[in-house]
Amino acid sequence: MKPSLTSPDPLRLDVRNLSTFFDTDEGLIRSVADVSFSIRPGKTTALVGESGSGKSVTSLSLMRLLSRTDSTQVSGQALFTNRAGETLNLLALPEPAMRRIRGNEIAMIFQEPMTSLNPVFTVGEQIAESVRLHMGLDRAAALAHALRMLELVEIPAAAQRLHEYPHQLSGGMRQRVMIALAMACNPTLLIADEPTTALDVTIQAQILELMRRLQRETGMSILFITHNLGVVAHHADDVAVMYAGRIVEAAPVRALFASPQHPYTQGLLACLPAQQRKRELANGETRGKRRLYAIRGQVSSPLAPPPGCAFEPRCDHALAACKEAMPALESAGPQRVARCILVSEAAPLVTETA
Amino acid sequence: MSAPLIEVKNLHRYFGAPAKPVRAVDDVSFSIQPGETLGLVGESGSGKSTIGRTLLRLIESTSGQVLYRGEDLGSASSSRMRALRSKLQMIFQDPYASLNPKMRVKDILGEALQVHGLAKGKVARNQRIVELLELVGLRAEHASRYPHEFSGGQRQRIGVARALAVEPEFIVADEPLSALDVSIQAQVVNLLCDLRDRLSLTMLFISHDLDVVEYLCDRVVVLYLGRVMEVAPTAELFSRPLHPYSQALLAASPKPDPEQKSVHIALKGDIPSPVNPPSGCVFRTRCPHVIDACASARPELRDMGQGRFKACIRDDIALVTA
C-alpha cells in the first residue's frame, strides 16, 4: 500500500507514478520520475521546486501538451474526476476526448501572459473562441460571455478592453485576461504554472486575491506550480516539494512549514532570510550579522544523477546508505510522506527550523 | 556623521523626446556613508536600475549631480572617469548576459586587471586571478573555462570576482539574485555579506526582494515611478513603514509562514505611465489614503526624525505594521 494524501472525499485529480523521460542525444533525461500526488475538490495543491525540478514538465504531461515524438516517454496514471463524476485517466484518453477536457474541464494559465496570448486577435475574440468551441455559443453570445468574464476578473472598462489587443494591456491586465480565458468554461481544475512570477508584488497580490475569490465562488481545484514559498504559505492547502524530478516531501501546508521532514525542504525553508529572522527572534538574538543557512553545491546534472538519493551530494545529514539506493516515498506522519531514509527510520531529525 | 562616500543630488534621467519624456528618474537625492549598504527597492519602472547605472555613469544623467568623495562624476573627463571606475564597480542582474561567452574566465578577470594596470606581468596576474576565484568560492582550475561551463550561481560568482578585481570601494549590485534559485541565492547573499565585511565595501543593493533587503541592508530607499517615497533605517522601515506605498509594498510581499497572517492593503490598478505621471503625488492614483490636496503639489521629502524621511503630506494616517 503506497502512502498518499487521500482523504475520504473523492479526489479531483489523483496522479499515480507519473514519469516523463526524454530520450536525447546525450542520454535519457528523467525529467519527472514516479510522481504521485492528489488534488482535493475546491482545494489548492502546490507543486514547489527550483528550476529543473520537473514541476512544469509534470503539468505539461498532465495536459498532454508535450510534443508527441518517440523521444518523449510518459507513463503512469492521472485519474481526473470530471463534472459528471466520471473518473478518467488523462494519460490514456483518446485525443478527441482530451480536447474536450482541455480549456473546458481543465484550464491552464502560464507564467508569461504575453507569449501565451495571441498577439493578432483581440482579447474578446480569444476568450470567445473557447466558449464557442466548448459551449456551442454563437458569435454574439460568445462575445457577451467574454465580456462577463472580463468583468469577473475585474478589468476596468471591460467593454472597451474586449476589443483591444494583448500589447495594449499591462502585465497585470494580461494575466487577468489569461485568467478570464481560463475561467470562461467554468473549469473544475485550474493549472497555474508560475502565474505571478513575472509580476510586481503589488500586482501579484491582486492576482492571487482574484484567484482565491474565483476558487471560493466556483469551487474549482487549483494546481499551483511555483518556486515562491511565500505564495505557497498563504495560497495552498497541500504542498508537494519536488527535487530533481521526484517528489521528496508532501504534506498539508501548515504541517510542512511547521516541521519540514526532508532535509531538502528543511534547507529550502532555512535559507530564506525571513525564516532566519524568525529563528533569531525566537532565540532572542540581535538581528543581522549571522550567516544565512545555505544548501551547499548545486543540483546534479540530469544526465549523471547520483546512484542513490538525488539530494545526497548536498545533504548535511547524508549517511553511507544514502549513496546506495533512491529512498522510497514513505509515510512521515498523518497525511504526510517524505523520501528520506532518516525519516523512515523513525528517528526524528533534529531540525534547525523547528 | 562622517562625509558620505556617494552623494546623489536632484538626479534626473529622462528618456525619449524632450517634449514628452519618459521620466525614469525624477529628482532623486540620497547619500551613502562609507561602509554602508543602502537598499534601493521598488517595482518595475520605479527607476531603480536607471539610478544604479547613472551613478556609475554607464548612462548619463539628464540633470543633477552624483558626487564620489565630493567629486562630481558628471563633470569628470573620460580618462578621469576610467580611473574612477576602478573604485566604482557593478554586479549585474543576469549572470548569463553579463559575461562574454567567447572569453575564458581568466581573460574576463585579466581584462579588468589589465585596463586598470593592476597585477602587472603574467605571473602576478595569474596569481591575482586565482586569488579572486578563491575569494568568491571558486577554484583555480576554473580559470581556463568558459562561462557556459558554469551554473547560474557560479556565473554570478564570476561577475562578483570581476567587480572585485580592481579593488573597488563602492559596488552597485543590480538585482544580483533574481536570476538564481532560492538555495543558490542564499549562497550568494552570504558571499556578498562576507566580502562586504572583509573588504569594507560600500554597496548600493538594488532589489525587489524585500526579505533579502531587510537581511542585507543598513538603510533603504523606497522608489515609486522614479521618485523617492521614503528613506529609513532598515529595522524602522520594516517594523513601521511611514509612507502608504511602503506600507502596501511590505503588505503585498507574502511571508513564507502560513501562521503569519499578512495585513491586506489592496492597491487598486496599475502603475501609471512615466510619460504622463499624475500631478502632485505620483502614488495618489493608487493610494488608499488619498485626499484632494495630494493632486495639487508634489510632496517634499520631509525629515521625520531618527534618520527617516517620507514624501507624503499626510501625518494622520493610521499606522499599519506589516
Largest sheet of chain B: 8 strands, mixed
Report the strand count of chain A: 12
The largest sheet of chain A is: 8 strands, mixed
Q: What spatial order of strands do you see in the largest sheet of chain B?
A: 6-7-8-3-9-10-12-11
End-to-end C-alpha gap of chain A: 30 Å
Query: Average pLDDT value of chain B?
Result: 91
What's the number of helices of chain B? 9
**Using CB atoms under 8 Å apart, which protein chain pair has the greatest interface?**
A-B, 48 and 44 residues
Radius of gyration of chain A: 21 Å
Helix/strand/pairing class of chain A, anyone? alpha/beta
* SSE run of chain A: EEEHEEHEHHHHHEHEHEEHHHEEH
Q: What do you see in this structure?
A:
- The complex is a heterodimer of chains A (354) and B (322).
- Mean pLDDT of chain A is 89; it is low at 1-7 and 347-354.
- Chain A has helices at residues 55-63, 95-101, 113-116, 123-135, 139-152, 158-161, 171-183, 201-218, 229-235, 253-258, 263-270, 273-282, 341-344; strands spanning 13-24, 27-39, 44-48, 72-81, 87-89, 106-109, 189-193, 221-226, 238-243, 246-252, 330-331, 337-338.
- Chain A has an 8-stranded mixed β-sheet with strand order 6-7-8-3-9-10-12-11, sandwiched between helices. In chain A, strands 2-1-4-5 form a 4-stranded antiparallel β-sheet.
- In chain A, a hairpin with a 2-residue loop joins strand 1 and strand 2.
- By secondary structure, chain A is an alpha/beta fold.
- The two termini of chain A are 30 Å apart.
- Chain A has 13 helices and 12 strands.
- Chain B has 322 residues and is α/β, with parallel strands linked by helices.
- Helices cover 29% and strands 21% of the residues of chain B.
- Chain B contains 9 helices and 12 strands.
- Chain B has helices at 48-55, 78-84, 105-115, 122-135, 152-164, 182-199, 210-216, 234-239, 244-252; strands at 6-15, 22-32, 37-41, 63-68, 71-72, 88-91, 170-174, 202-207, 219-224, 227-233, 302-305, 308-310.
- An 8-stranded mixed β-sheet of chain B has the order 6-7-8-3-9-10-12-11, sandwiched between helices. A 4-stranded antiparallel β-sheet of chain B has the order 2-1-4-5, covered by helices on one side.
- In chain B, a hairpin with a 6-residue loop joins strand 1 (6-15) and strand 2 (22-32).
- The radius of gyration of chain B is 21 Å and the shape is globular.
- In chain B, 48% of the residues are buried.
